[in-house]
Design a protein that fits this description.
The N and C termini lie far apart (30 Å). Helices cover 70% and strands 0% of the residues. The longest helix is centred in the last third of the chain and has 21 residues. The chain contains two helices and no strands. The model has no long low-confidence stretch (mean pLDDT 94). It has 56 residues and is mainly alpha-helical. It has a domain of 25 residues.
Length: 56
């Protein structure tokens, strides 16, 4: 999967919560979990949610 670069701003509390979650998951899984992967997972969730709502 190719990626594109774009710049955005996030709520500071949300950013630090995600960063903390990535760190905790990395420690649990014993491998680095990039913050971008969590953000992308959240974006995919939002897409699925609203695509389903639009179909109904």
């Amino acid at each position: 999967m190719s990626r594109i670069r774009f710049t955005t701003t996030l709520d500071e509390e949300l950013y630090f919560s995600l960063q903390n979650l990535a760190l905790k998951l990395s420690q649990k899984e014993k491998k680095k979990i990039p913050l971008n992967e969590l953000i992308e997972e959240g974006m995919r969730y939002v897409l699925k949610k609203y695509e389903c709502e639009l179909k109904n």
